[in-house]
Design a protein that fits this description.
- This is Small ribosomal subunit biogenesis GTPase RsgA.
- By secondary structure, this protein is α/β, with parallel strands linked by helices.
- The chain has helices spanning 137-150, 167-173, 190-196, 211-218, 277-282, 285-290, 308-314, 320-338; strands spanning 37-45, 48-53, 56-62, 76-81, 91-96, 102-105, 115-119, 123-129, 153-159, 180-182, 200-205, 244-248, 259-263.
- It has 3 domains: 17-96, Nucleic acid-binding proteins (OB fold (Dihydrolipoamide Acetyltransferase, E2P)), CATH 2.40.50.140; 102-263, 3-Layer(aba) Sandwich (Rossmann fold); 277-338, Orthogonal Bundle (Ribonucleotide Reductase Protein R1, domain 1).
- It is built from 8 helices and 13 strands.
- Helix 1 links the parallel strand 8 (123-129) and strand 9 (153-159).
- The chain is globular and about 65 Å long.
- It binds guanosine-5'-triphosphate (GTP) and zinc ion (ZN).
- Residues 159-160, 162-163, 183-185, 205, 207-213, 226-227, 229, 236, 239, 266 line the site of guanosine-5'-triphosphate (GTP).
Length: 340
């Protein structure tokens, strides 16, 4: 799949969480912040933001003028006030820079509200264990769909390869050209590091799959809590409920970051009611081309009549396994619609 660096199509910029009109100050009163410093949002916690500004960490609140507009992890924001980062100081976020991408979910399929989860990522790593807990392709498919919708490049990381073989999952995702990596205790993370290099990658995975173990291995000294799952709540006591952006160190010790990992809390569901099938198709240029011959309103699923995708298979232009895998993930979206 050929994509530009940011992984998004040029028409994807419109209307990302612009503040509503009533919350926006009248233009003539709006101060000009264009020369304010720009920082990256690392965490969001009850109206407080931890920002990385150059090589210092700064705490901040949101300026009243931003109203209810969301500020999310990964956002690039303009900040004013005390940006020294010294103990007890608090800067003010006055503007969110236009987002390149937004990964969204709806809490449930019947939840009408889209919740932006992470801004400005360009890759989505889905972490799945090969056993303990057993892999759930339905969940992987749903997260993939959210990633394609957001214009993120997918990456599948299969952990616990010491416990079970990866064949089945490889067969399910290779036809979609999803890169798949496997890990196990002590395995070489070189290829994963290469894929993370210079990019911002969201890590998503069900609780217990070994996500913290992986993040700790990638970022020595980080010490994310591993395996502290509370039996009663199914949630680690110290597990944060929102995402956190973590800079990846350069292995040779040079300054700056080698990329960003945005770690998200274990997901149990990934609602997709905000996703349209057309945007999933658009993530696969070869398939999108074949749908040009479809009848109007074709949904391209396995029940579709005269679908151009079936024609493409008949003509030998599309591998049957690719179409089958594509329809499986399309179904992950459509089944969301079937149970509103
Ligand atoms: N056998 C095996 N066990 C692993 C592997 N990776 C992690 N584990 C174990 O799996 C358990 C869960 O690992 P975590 O890293 O806490 O999983 P997590 O996905 O971060 O889970 P949450 O913190 O609940 O989100 C721990 O006991 C780990 O030691 C692996 O590759 N093989
Ligand atoms: Zn079709």
């Amino acid at each position: 799949m050929v994509r530009n660096r940011s992984g998004i199509h040029s028409d994807d910029h419109a209307g990302f969480d612009r503040p509503r009109r009533r919350t926006r100050p009248r233009t003539k009163d709006r101060p000009d912040y264009s020369d304010a410093e720009v920082a990256t949002v690392i965490t969001v916690d009850r109206g407080r933001y931890r920002l990385r500004l150059g090589d210092r960490m700064v705490s901040a609140t949101k300026a009243r003028a931003l109203g209810r507009a969301a500020v999310i992890v990964g956002d690039r924001v303009r900040v004013v006030g005390d940006t020294s980062g010294e103990e007890g100081t608090l800067a003010r976020v006055v503007e969110v820079v236009e987002r390149r991408t937004v990964l969204r979910r709806t809490a449930d399929d019947d939840d009408p509200f889209e919740r932006p989860v992470v801004a400005n990522a360009d890759q989505l790593a889905i972490i799945t264990a090969l056993a303990d807990p057993p892999p759930r392709t339905g969940m992987v498919d749903r997260i993939l769909v959210a990633g394609y919708d957001a214009g993120l490049d997918p990456l599948l990381v299969l952990t616990k390869a010491d416990l079970a073989p990866a064949d089945e999952l490889l067969a399910a995702y290779q036809p979609l050209d999803v890169p798949v990596l496997t890990t196990q205790p002590g395995s070489d993370l070189g290829e994963l590091r290469e894929r993370l290099h210079g990019r911002t990658t969201v890590f998503v995975g069900h609780s217990g799959v070994g996500k913290s173990t992986l993040v700790n291995a990638l970022i020595p000294g980080l010490d994310r809590a591993v395996g502290e799952v509370n039996a009663a709540t199914g949630r680690g006591r110290h597990t944060s409920t929102s995402a956190v952006a973590l800079p990846l160190p350069h292995l040779d010790g040079s300054a700056g970051e080698a990329g960003w990992v945005i770690d998200t809390p274990g997901v149990r569901s990934f609602g997709l009611s905000h996703v349209t099938p057309a945007r999933i198709v658009a993530a696969f240029p070869d398939l999108a081309e074949s749908t040009e011959e479809c009848p109007r309103g074709c949904r391209h699923d396995s029940t579709a009549v005269d679908c151009g995708l079936d024609l493409a298979v008949t003509r030998g232009r599309l591998a049957p396994a690719r179409l089958q895998s594509f329809r499986r993930i399309l179904d992950a979206r459509l089944s969301a619609e079937a149970h509103p």
